[in-house]
Amino acid sequence: MDVSFFGAHGHVPLRVALLLAAVAGILLSALAGSARIMQLRAAARKHHRAGHRAVKAEAKDSSKARL
What is the per-residue pLDDT across 30-51, written as a single tens digit (0 to 9) for each? Predict the structure, then answer.
């Protein structure tokens, strides 16, 4: 089977071409999934910090109100 990819030309068996395409698809999916997981973790950290600050501020305000 003749293959042309980004200007590279070659001759490979169909099985090898399909295997390489499957491996490339798996790698791209893993890369995209990892990027999304990192995005979600950052958002969760930001949300957690904001909640923690709100609790601290509320505790500070309530202690002032008691005095």
Answer: 999 999 999 999 999 998 888 7
Q: What is the DSSP string of the chain?
A: -EEEETTEEEE--HHHHHHHHHHHHHHHHHHHHHHHHHHHHHHHHHHHHHHHHHHHHHHHHHHHHH-
pTM of the model: 0.61
List Cβ neighbours of 12 (8 Å cut-off, separation of 6 or more): 1, 3, 20
Measured CA to CA, the distance from residue 4 to residue 10 in angstroms comes to 7
